[in-house]
Structure prediction request, 233 residues.
Amino acid sequence: LWTASDGTYRTIFAEGNEGVLVFDTFYSPGAALAYRDAIGRLLPTKEIHTVVYSHDHLDHTGFALNLAPGADVVAHEECARVVDGQAAPTEVWAGLRREFGVDGVEFELVYPGPTHGNGNVGAFFPELRLLFMVDTVIPGVGYTFFPDWHLTRYAGAMRSLLALDWDTFVPGHFWSVDRRGFEQNLEWIDVVRDAAREALAEGVDPDRYDEVHAWAKERLAAYAGLFRFNEYV
Prediction:
């Protein structure tokens, strides 16, 4: 199992007995081709035969035909229902968990419920004690905005993944984290939610950027050492 990144986006791919199984496609035709070429340099005798979609957002799953024309495409039914990338899923699965064995690669896809986008799933590799999931937990304090997030259920759904036996979490952006880094990211979501309520209750004017910024920087100071805090706050 390998991980590939351009410094911001990240994904994984696995060497099978006969070919290669990849997760996602990167965010553009050029990035997909660069991903394919990187895999080809590492595994020059093996073709990509399977692409697993993480979720419906095209910056992760939109360019399968650039990456691997003719490959099988696997997606959760909630993703398959709405995804509109180059390649439609050829295998659709439903439910919360399913074990897969593809070309000698054993893994489990896990759908914890609504988190970000549609049908966003994690890939769990028990033997490696590794979990991969895109656009949810990342290193540091979180994303700088929350489009297409199901925030009411998000933290609980993500915490359900702590029931799996893993040590390393590979996110869809930046670098890997351990279980504590994973938990800390979810704690941040809770802290931001509570801080927003407190700010409104205390009369902070949401239309005054300077007022909001000063209040947030003071109340969230315990997280100031984490990656992207100054950008996020």
